[in-house]
Amino acid sequence: MTSLIRRTLIATAVALATSALAPAFAQDIKPRLIRFGYGLNEQSNQGRGSKVFADEVDRLSGGKMKVRLFGAGSLGPDVQMQQALLGGAQEMMVGSTATLVGITKEMGLWDTPFLFNNTQEADAVLDGPVGEKIKAKLEEKGLVGLVYWENGFRNLTNNKRAVTKLEDFDGIKLRVMQNTVFLDSFKTLGANAIPMPFSELFSALETKAVDGQENPYNTILSSKFYEVQKYLTVTNHVYSPWIVMASKKFWDGLSAAEKKVLMDAAVKSRAFERKDTRDEGAKALAELKGKGMQINELSVAEAGRMRDKLGAINTSIAANVGQDLWNETQAELAKLRKK
Ligand code: TK8
Question: Is the pTM of this model over 0.90?
């Protein structure tokens, strides 16, 4: 073989090898644009977590992927954004798992009243096999679940009266999320439960179309519900997760490296968001008191009555999400509680 031919062969081999290496990122000069929507204000745990996600995507992709944030429900409430993700008109969002039950019924597991006793249990189950299994169900429907964030334990606010006993729920017009378990839970407690998207809630409270709502302390604070709500009752009736999701249509068009950037950034944002939520949540009650809210806890007896009442809907939740999934969750919780 002459040296010329050999050199040509080597050059061709190198060229072939280089072209065979798939580009890690889209080679376009324009960065890949990802529209990411969320429901709360920019100045909230959800807004801050979203910002961390966006910054991390920018950093990890060397500026080749750009997350544009749309907060305060500016791309519509949760259900509308989910539809936009399904259709591929929007790339990403973070929102409540509770509003996803129309798409993936297994998400309803998280709506179980008093499912978790504390955030350690929530983290272990959400990030463990049960949480992964439920997240994976989204893919069949056209959504990709990346990570769960913390919305938090939910508490009751209203404008009618301090709720100190079960009977006090009577006749309170209470906004709930668009989710049957929430609807049934509060009907069972005697409230007049009205499903409504979060984006309409502040004005519904302000105009007294509804008397109350339930959300974690952080949201009561960041959404300024204290301006339009007098009473807060510490009920901790359910732990509410958020979930960061991508449109599957969008996801399937990404390179492996791009998917990894989004996943790594999501995991980083999860750690930040949970810590931020817990740090702020620990101070929020005092702040809400400072804003003039009248706060009360339930007596042990009344908390027990509420628990018993709500326990009655567990059977229907189990049937709805699947008895196997329910049993697996209970077994995992029992294991965690033994430790
Ligand atoms: C924000 C909602 C909110 C939820 C609700 O989009 O609707 O009450 O708690 O966090 O997902």
Answer: yes
